[in-house]
Amino acid sequence: MRRTRGARHRVLGSHAFRGLRTTEHVFDVPLDHGNPEGEHLEVFAREYVSAAHPAESIDGLPWLVFLQGGPGGRGNRVTSLSGWMKEAAKDFRILMLDQRGTGLSTPADRLTLPLRGKPRQQAEYLAHFRADSIVLDCEAIRRALGTGPWTVYGQSYGGFCTLTYLSIAPQGLREALITGGLAPLDGPAERVYRATYARLAARNAQFFSWYPDDRRRVTEIVEHLRSVREHLPDGSRLTPERFQLVGNLLGGNTRVDSLHYLLEDAFTRSADGRRLTDAFLQQVHAIVTRAPNPLYAVLHESIYAQGEPTGWAAWRVLAEYPGFRADSEEPLLLGEMVCPWLFEQDPALVPLAETAALLAEKSDWGALYDAARLAENEVPVAAAVYRDDIYVDRSLSLETAHRIRGLNVWETADFHHDGIADDGEGIFARLLGLVRGG
């Protein structure tokens, strides 16, 4: 069982608006929790409390820490309580982290990482940015706040982090809720991509059955990009394979139909002939750029690594699914797969290409999960498993669920990966009821 000290802590400020109170916290944590006297970094967190609770009662509310999806995404910024947060705020103080390297925490991006030195030094630094470090940050923060075991809610990658929490610091957990985030406990990464490519192909087929004309439109856009140079607002070229990344919109009930609206904006006539519209290029850029969250790409495959190198697993497995090749006759749209060409085409990632390559070659990753401890788990846990999730495969999720003692599974086909954006209140209430025997 790992232990970590409480973090040094300061409060930046508090605000009240639109039925909620927020408090901004900064915590000083070790870069390497195994070396607490070494280098430190800052982790920012924002506390959300419903204004329905009298100010004098807030200290008595239990804490809920939200671990968001990613990797590399900052905590949600909300201006009013809605969805799952509205439901949770009835009973909890919500702590929303900017996980290390993101948001207002000590940043890790194309501007700051060169300060670490050469790519090898950058890769060594980023090896401390996986789920185990995030969990130990949480434990240091929990101790700094002076609270006992708290509730953790993990969405997507946040669910992966929650499994790590159950593995290395279960003493910090009162209960755990997971949505779309039951990671496989064993490698290699290839098994993840074989499962998700198959589900993504099925989702492409489903989408094109709803919008048959969009099958033709996607092919036309890819063919156009093969012969005509089109540029995104940051000046980078929109290549056929980069365009395919708009398939990220296939991963949800709340987003999938917006893909149709995006595609209908594609073409216009100009003095130069048929071109892609500025509106289309602007929307595509917002989907495919990794400027706001570069760690998503740099660390993405490392979230599956436990000992073995990932070696660009998604790129290698793609060869088994030729329908996703950009030069196929009717190319399918891609999802969360990160391929090496992305570090040649996205300006936010180009300076990090060598660093990412070194991380892909890294062969001494530590274990993220303790299968023996999970088999003896005593923390109440409930997980929503989405039957047709294209990012976190159902079969792999259920495999993991069966290996965790006492885990309550709610399997449903009503939602996709973005379920908490669809019915956050209902999903949160159901999972909380499951862990509490309701």
From TrEMBL:
KW Endoplasmic reticulum (keyword) present: no
AB hydrolase-1 domain span: 62-181
Gene3D superfamilies: alpha/beta hydrolase
Entries under Pfam families matching the protein: Abhydrolase_1
GO molecular function: hydrolase activity
Keywords: Hydrolase
InterPro entries for the chain: AB_hydrolase_1 (IPR000073), AB_hydrolase_fold (IPR029058), Peptidase_S33 (IPR002410), Serine_prot/Carboxylest_S33 (IPR051601)
Superkingdom of the source species: Bacteria
Family (UniProt): Belongs to the peptidase S33 family.
PANTHER family to which the protein is assigned, alphabetical: 2-SUCCINYL-6-HYDROXY-2,4-CYCLOHEXADIENE-1-CARBOXYLATE SYNTHASE, PROLYL AMINOPEPTIDASE
Protein name: Alpha/beta hydrolase
Native organism: Sinomonas terrae
Taxonomic lineage: Bacteria, Bacillati, Actinomycetota, Actinomycetes, Micrococcales
